[in-house]
Amino acid sequence: MQDRNFDDLAAKFAAKIYASQKGAVRIAVIWRDLLECCAQRGVALQAENATSSPAQPLRVLELGGGLGQFSCRLAQLGHRVVYNDISAAMAEQAQQRAAAAGCLEAIQWRIGSYQQLVEAAHADAQQFDLVLCHAMIEWLAKPSQLVAQITPLLAPNGLLSLSYYNHHGWAYRNLMRGNFNLLSRPYQSHPGSLTPQHAFSFEQIVQWLHAAQLRVHRCSGIRVFSDYTREQRGGLQSAAATLEQELNYSLLEPYKWLGRYLHVVAERDPG
């Protein structure tokens, strides 16, 4: 098994995920979490005046940056952003997005494996106030190594934003669809599909975070109900209403634990 490179599926990924309600929910939940978690630490991710830059620009690293939505948004807000992805095709789309948004030159583009970037950052003693790693860990050949490798890149007061494919969400969806045969054997993805190579429990992710001396600051569910519905009726016919309810229930027990993905914001454990 190798780290997944999306050169062959970049167009399909863009169409099926980020051109759909799925992508809108993912971006909205993660952005809400980032805004609120940074604010709780006295850091303004965006200035009150939309036309001005934040008082203290953050050093941001996005690993597995994909189509570059977060890199572009953060660069537009005046933060110092380093984008990384192993896929040249994904990076090309991200650069097109950045060029259209007028922030192409404001982003440092690092195309290649995240391991190469981490090694170079270690050598240069680089640290970041915010490290983003969204929907990437489940595509790695050795996912257990990721958190330990990137934790030294976090500044003392830095935050790690990590989203991952939720094993409980995968199991629940297959229960809803009657795919009981899939639940009776170890998790397995299908080559050539957008089904990740791995699915993780929250307990497994927390174990890796604790081993790296990080603790969970917040955990939210991503797509806690809209992925499970087959009939678009009532409020489900409204994208805005669906997004509002996804945001509402993404933080509520027990619903958040059924999200197709979970978003964890972690910080250094002072203990």
Protein described:
It is a single chain. The longest helix is centred in the first third of the chain and has 20 residues, at 21-40. With 271 residues, the protein is of the alpha/beta class. It has one domain: Vaccinia Virus protein VP39 (Rossmann fold, 3-Layer(aba) Sandwich). The mean pLDDT is 90. It has helices at residues 10-18, 21-40, 69-76, 88-101, 114-123, 146-150, 167-176, 180-183, 202-211, 239-249, and strands spanning 59-63, 80-85, 107-111, 128-134, 154-165, 214-222, 261-268. Helix 3 (69-76) runs parallel beside helix 4 (88-101).
Brief sketch in words of this structure:
It contains ten helices and seven strands. It is α/β, with parallel strands linked by helices and 271 residues long. α4 (88-101) links the parallel β2 (80-85) and β3.
